[in-house]
Amino acid sequence: MDKLVIGSEEHKQLMCKMFMETFTPYEPSKLPWPDLAEAVIQRLAALPVWDEAVRTQAETAMKVLELGKVEKDPQMAEAISLQGYEESRHAEILKILTTR
To answer: What is the pTM of this model?
Structure first.
């Protein structure tokens, strides 16, 4: 097998294929969230990372989605947009977690 050249057309094709073939559509709000014991909820709630994590994921999603809109290569635009959608789901999952 030849060595894959980073930035080559083959590299782009493989990267886009991976994003598109592994994408799984789901809605975080419809996931089967488990009931947690009060002690576990208290431990999770005490972690000082939640606001920053939600904000960072939301900002990342917005940036990646905007990048997908301006990408000129249609295949790359689709792959980037899928990743942006995925980042927005990460933010939604964190929001749901923190409200539960």
So the answer is: 0.79
